[in-house]
Structure formats: structure tokens, C-alpha cells
Amino acid sequence: MNKFDISKLEKSVREVPDFPKPGIKFKDITPILINPKLLAMSIEALASHVDSSSIDKIIGIDARGFIFGSLLANLLGKGFIPVRKEGKLPWQTESQAYDLEYGKSVIEIHKDAIDPGERILIVDDLLATGGTAEAAVKLVEKLSGTVDSLLFFIELEFLNGRELLKNTKVQSVLKY
Ligand code: AMP
Q1: Is 14 considered catalytic here?
Q2: Which of 158, 176, 139 shows the shortest CA–CA distance to 168?
Q3: Atom of ligand 1 nearest to the CA of 135
């Protein structure tokens, strides 16, 4: 296995049909998480897309974005900010509503998570329609931060999420 055996990572994502709703093909990353070599490789592959000197902090989006985002933050020596589903953060929050591939939701960030002008990398496990990522971008802007770029482990290209995010740099490790 070389350093970034992308095809090995790709083959290790399990596709679960009709979860959580009929018609959705859910990309299950747990076979990667459970394997230490694949987990390390997935974080190295994410890190290969990042210019560490151009970011101050990393956001991970609830919930699988926490896994990749916090491991990446640790590897790069950056602080980690959780963006959570509504009602989960204990301190004062900013909120943003958005549409999902399967439903509607609200995400929140602590008001003191970002200092004005800080450059933020936003990480999530998967880019589908882009609605979640777009909401995270709006949260950063509400706190007067600057979004450096968006980074996903998986991108579902056929859903064209990049179109919604066209004002922001978007990168991904695996494309389906
Ligand atoms: P979207 O806002 O449509 O880009 O959806 C992205 C969010 O929904 C991410 O946080 C994903 O974890 C989750 N998600 C959407 N579609 C899928 C899918 N087919 N498989 C796994 N997760 C998904």
C-alpha cells in the first residue's frame, strides 16, 4: 500500500442502499475508521490538500466531520471548532438553517469560536448537494471569519454541490 492508495480507500467505503431513506445510497466510512492504516491514510490524504500556513482553525461539521476535522486539526497543529446540530452547543450561538439531501436542518457555532479575520478550513465527510457546507460558510461569515476552503473526504459529483459553493474553493479526496 503506498502513502495515498486512493483506490484502496475508495474500495473501503461501504455503500448502503436505502439508508436513511429509500433511494439514498449512504456512503459508510466506518470500514475506514476501524482500520488504523486506512484511517491514518485518509487523514494524510486530506492533509495533502491543505496549505497549513494559510489557515488558523479547522471547523468540523456534525457528526462525521468531527472525526476527520479533529484528526486533521491535530495533525496540522490547528484548533478545532465543532459546528453542531441545533440545541447541542452549551454557550451563545449563531445559527443557520439549510436543506439536506434528505430533509431540513439547522447548524450552530459558538459565537466566540472565531476571531474577526481568522482563516477557516471547513471539513466534512461528504459533499452531496452542498447545503450543509453552504450553511457552514455562512456561519463563518456571520462571525467575521474568512473561509479559506472546504475539504471533503467524499464528493458525490452527480449532485453538483460545487455549483452551490462556487464562490469558495472546494477540494475532495474521493469522487463518486
Ligand atoms: P449536503 O448538505 O446535501 O451536501 O449533505 C451533506 C451532509 O449529509 C454531510 O454531512 C453528509 O454526512 C450527509 N450525507 C448526505 N448524503 C449522504 C450520503 N449519500 N452518504 C453519507 N452521508 C451523506
Answers
A1: no
A2: 139
A3: 2
Report the pLDDT averaged over residues 95-122.
93
Residue range 51-175 forms a domain whose CATH class is: alpha beta
Q: Which residue has the higher pLDDT, 101 or 38?
A: 38
Pocket test for ligand 1, best of 19, 27, 101 (most atoms within 8 A of CB): 101
- State pLDDT tens for residues 54-63: 999 999 999 9
Q: 108: which DSSP letter?
A: E
Q: Global pTM? A: 0.97
Alpha carbons 144 and 111: distance in angstroms, whole number = 10
Nearest CA to ligand 1 atom 12: 126
* 48: number of Cβ within 10 Å: 11
Our mutation pick for probing the ligand 1 site, out of 26, 62, 132, counting the most ligand atoms within 8 A of Cβ, is 132
**Domain-wise residue ranges, the chain:** 51-175
Looking from the CA of residue 61, the nearest atom of ligand 1 is 10
- Coil, strand or helix at 41: helix
Q: Provide the pLDDT confidence category of residue 102 given band limits of 50, 70 and 90.
A: low
Please tell me the residue having the least CA distance from ligand 1 atom 3: 129
Per-residue model confidence (pLDDT) at position 101: 60
What values do phi and psi take at 76, rounded to 5?
-90, -5
Catalytic site includes residue 64: yes
Computed over every residue of the chain, the mean pLDDT equals 96
